[in-house]
Amino acid sequence: MQKPTHTQVIGITSGRSGVGKTTVSVNLAVALHDMGYDVMILDANSSASNAQAALGTHCPLNLSHFISGEKNLKDIILSRHYGIKLIAGAKTIESMTTLNGDQATRAFQQFSDLEESLDFLIIDLPPGTDPSVLSFMACTGRRLIVVRSDKEGLADAYAMIKILCSDFGLDRIYIIVNAAKSDEDGKNLFNHLNTVSTKFLNRELHYLGCIKQDELMMEASENHKAVTEFAPTSQAAHDIRHLALATSELDRKQYTEGGLGHFVERIIHLHDLKMT
């Protein structure tokens, strides 16, 4: 296993709620950890602590305690029994994009201090096209969008992709199809979305893979467990491991000057990212 040179920051979101975005985020994090990587989740769902609930825990401290100066970054990190780390964003995730000078310097230093001990930072973002969500997504190195096979969901996903491409000029957008009927169904859904994106946005999307329909995935979630632990031989566990492998093998050239410090710098200078 080849460890990345710098922490890979991955944003995961969806065009709408109910497509299994957080389930994918948590299971992907656990599968990456099982491969030997050091992983942390930033639960950026401001209104519902989804990642915390999925892991059967609650963070007593959150990002607001760090931004206010009450606590250091390491003080608000919770370690889970899987070995992955967790930070709660609470309702202050938007404030990361409006840090003052002293806060920005402190954030840069303390996030950078985690660089050597962290291979992946997975940010579980709220669904939808709220400007603060997409702004935060634009700061990540990789953007993973979870979709399901329904017209409304695809339309919402496309609306999000359109803003990311046209307003921020982004590429490296990856699609994960959740609850696909088959591998063929997952690939067909991606091809449809990619065809529309290529035609109207002149932007090619990338297919990371699919998770096929499996009741054991839902049962694992209901028991606040990763499916690879709850049902390690299930189809869902197999698919999650495949996604984790695909994620670990993504081109890493952009991370030569990347990592957590680069991620925080992009947040601090967010107004420079948005294209005019």
From the structure above, extract its key features.
Rossmann fold; 8 strands; 276 residues
Description:
The chain is α/β, with parallel strands linked by helices. The chain has a single domain (8-271), classed as 3-Layer(aba) Sandwich (Rossmann fold), CATH 3.40.50.300. Helix content is 44%, strand content 16%. The chain is built from twelve helices and eight strands. It has helices at 21-34, 50-54, 63-67, 101-112, 131-139, 151-168, 183-201, 215-222, 227-230, 235-248, 260-268, 270-273, and strands at 8-14, 39-43, 78-79, 85-88, 120-124, 142-147, 173-180, 206-212. The protein has an eight-stranded mixed sheet, sandwiched between helices. Strand 3 (78-79) and strand 4 form a beta hairpin. The termini are far apart. The mean pLDDT is 87.
- Give the number of helices: 12
Structural class: alpha/beta
The CATH architecture name reads 3-Layer(aba) Sandwich
Helical coverage, percent range = 40-55%
Number of strands: 8
Give the structure's gist in a few sentences:
The protein is of the alpha/beta class and 276 residues long.
SSE inventory with pairings:
Layout: E1 8-14, H1 21-34, E2 39-43, H2 50-54, H3 63-67, E3 78-79, E4 85-88, H4 101-112, E5 120-124, H5 131-139, E6 142-147, H6 151-168, E7 173-180, H7 183-201, E8 206-212, H8 215-222, H9 227-230, H10 235-248, H11 260-268, H12 270-273
Helix pairs in contact: 1-10, 4-11, 5-6, 6-7
